[in-house]
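Re: your question from the hallway

Yes, I did run it. Sequences:
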Amino acid sequence: MTLKESPRVSPVTGRPDRRAGSRRRSGRPGAGTLATFIAPGLMLFLLFVILPVLFAAYVAFFRWNGLGGVPTEFVGLENFRNLVQDEVFLGDLWRLALIVVLSLLVQLPISFGLAMLLHQRFPGRTAFRLLFFVPYVLTEAVTAVLFRLVFSPRRGFADSFLANLGVDAQIGWLSDRNIIMFVIFGILTWKFFGFHMILFLAGRQNIPDELYEAASIDGATGAQAFRSITLPLMGPTVRMIVFLSVIGSVQLFDLVYVLTGGGPFHASETLAITMYEQGFQRNQIGYASALSIAMFVISLVFALLYQRYVLNRDLQGSITTAGGSRS
Amino acid sequence: MKVTTRRARLLRHTGFYVAAFITTAFVATPILFALLGGFKDNQQLRENALGLPNPWNIENYTDVLASGAFWQQVFSSVFIALVTTFIVVICSAMVAFVFARYAFRGREGLFTLFAAGMMFPFAVAVLPLFIILRSFELLNSPFGVILPQAAFGLPLTIIILRTFFRSIPGEVEEAATIDGAGPWLFFTRILLPMARPVLATVSVLALVGSWNSFLLPLVVLQKSTWWTLPLGVTQFSGQYASDTAKVLAFVMLAMLPALVFYAFAERHLISGLTSGGTKG
Amino acid sequence: MRNPLLRPRALVAAGAAAALALTAAACGDSGESDADITWWHIQNQDPLMSTWQEFADDFAADNDVTIDVQAIENQAFKDRMGTASQSGDVPDVFHTWGGGVLAEQVEAGLVQDLTGKLDCIDQINPIALEPYTIDGKLYGMPFDAGVVGFWYNEDLFAQAGITQPPATWDEFLAAVEALKDEGITPIALAGADKWPGHYYWTYLAMRTVGLDGLASAAEAGDFSGDGFVQAGQMVADLAALEPFQPGFESAVYGEADGQSAVMGEGLAAMELMGQWAPQAQRDNSGTEGPENLGFFPFPTVAGGTGTTTEWLGGGNGYAVAADAPDEALDFLCTLMEPENYTRAIAEGNLTPVAADVAAVAPDLNEDTQKVVDALATATGTQLYLDQAYPPAIGGVINDATEGLLLGQLTPEDFVAMVNEAWAAEA
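Structure:
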């Protein structure tokens, strides 16, 4: 979905907009009626979605501790200049890239594989499908509290488990700067693979069986059918899941904030955590607003580019429309 | 697939089960750790983190269930989720109805504005939202959480509902019009009842989104009066930091409502997610 | 259907009315009547948590008010206070350490001037009021005051052949080495909480440049002096010896595996911590704590101007919100009633701030006595820097110390970050 495309292409169906509403009808409602229908939603949206973003864009040009009143100390681009030199912010971007790359290379293939598995008919598959989806249902913040205990040194589950296997490894699950992002990635995988699996499964189920029957008649092997039917026809689903995954990663907060608070020393910090710390803990509202705007721009640019170069080929038949979040 | 022999199928099935059971262990272990850990005491947790509780100790669970704070948080979470859902579904349905069935100048522009809202990560808005809510005096009020959540839920809900409303044939409306129904009557008496399944789907999405929401309540609800469960769990785990078993019991009980809900609304949840992605 | 406009409007109006009613109902529940008091404190461990609750319940029953008591873990409390200050709505009674953090809250108009309003104020030692006094006005009531020093497990020290507590930094480093050689974790530290780490840098700065040096640096907002860089280097050198317990990077102070529990279980030989440490060791570990717990002041640094009688320290107190009901003030004095205060001191091992200590605490616990003695002979004190300075600067100091301890920042980086924070605050 983009600002540019949607007037011409329905983001839902991908079909050119036929202007369904422009058909002639009797008893056309007046503008007042239409306005009444739209007003509550529009008010809500303008007040709590558009206004905050505009306000953040304004405050980003001030130095302001936020304690009452309105911002007065205009500092121009200083907040943005500081931002691009802030090693924590730059680190956030690196960690974002790491999570995205790991998701694409590890998490999505696993989910894809499991979806293919659960598409097969075998006794108990419904139970497995239900079970694999359970972590996605759990609240991120609660999950984080749980995993903090799982990985707690000495009495946590992870260390005890390893010790039972005879490995006295003393792994600093949450304390080792070098592995913390991988631990977090592991938890994210635990939490989200079921969601992606369900989306893949839905995509797979949309492929008509006739195609495979035809291929089999033509003598294609299972591997060939997979390559020439499954993969291409799953393309739209894959591309949409990648999109959801990236947008979700940009706003990662709950899980990491509760699990590590971004530590040790920023080693697991995310954009949203840095924004929260600067804004609410250190009372640097102007700077935190600049960071918010940076997040906004990152999401927007990614969405526009992705739409332009990846999605616009196959909006047709995509299983989902747009947007999405991990939180 | 006709050539598949019985043995090959057996082999294949064995492969399925191995993969499925490994994944099951991966998924279930942390949850079982919480469930069983809640039945242990701290001594047992330290010395026997893996095994079954011995003796089984229900005190942690009963303590949590007996605390007023837990039930207050359950109530807040439920209240906030229900009101959020109500507002977002009603507002979205009205907007989507107009977008789907009437042409007017600026319609596509407006729709694009709403749809673009999906691009706004919620975290971007939380800081200015906080200041806006402060000037509306909505901090520490459940509506400080409900209204922004509902607003951020609009785009996805509108998109899903608009698709559905468009799919209803024009003849239905024409018939209604001939019978003298205006747009309002058509909307409430004909369209909404027809849309029941899809309304259920978007409601489930909104409920789940609200139930899981953390960042917004974290900044809006400083006082415990309206704390939701996610806030309660994090606070509890800080307050009873040295009582690991009790925290595990609280975690388990906090997960329970979502699990029960999932068991009942699984179909709607899945169909909602596969038809629209999610928007927390 | 004559007038299609009528019905939707009516419905919207009804909806709006319903929403308003709901809001009103909600506010009715959460909004405070005059007689409601919210109280945030950080005594989140028994016995004091229950004692505080009991005092609150008694006061509520006697005065026909309700008190909503929130026992919040230290770090979580700081986080929530930050947001609450921003929201302009702080609890009626809340924990404070005084200093620059309190000053910023005062400046924002959130805190009530208590000068002359507390009947019980003459029961408190005037020296203890200092951190809570801003521009000659009193904004908080202390209930405990003490110093930060090394609490050490005497048995583990003896095991490593250390007979005398180290008096100089070099001796200290030698002791760390000796403990390590014996296979003992020398120091327990809550790396994730950051504030316990900042004691090290602060003390080293106090020992190199002295209290005056620290004060003038804060005055000028310039920490570039050699002494500060040296202090940072010494923190880094200490960290390079790897003296902390495994996993300290993610440890918090009061968790089951945190700094305090590690000390309590005798798994580390010492911790640099305030007067509450012995009690916290027992609470968090669920044990009786180390059998022989000693206390020694932060060592001196060769060539530095600071002495061992200059202490980093501070106390715990409560401030009152600007719009709090008068009952909140009465409640504070309830805590100081001799009977109650004596009980709190005994159960929570508080370090008394009473003008007449003997009256409220005839026989102090041995550990508390050590802190009281240290205070009695102190030649100077410095409030914890993360409270003494405004939050933006205190936050940077905490954060940067963590960076030093984890080898992620150089002493020069540290100084630059602190200077930058002061410059931004100016």
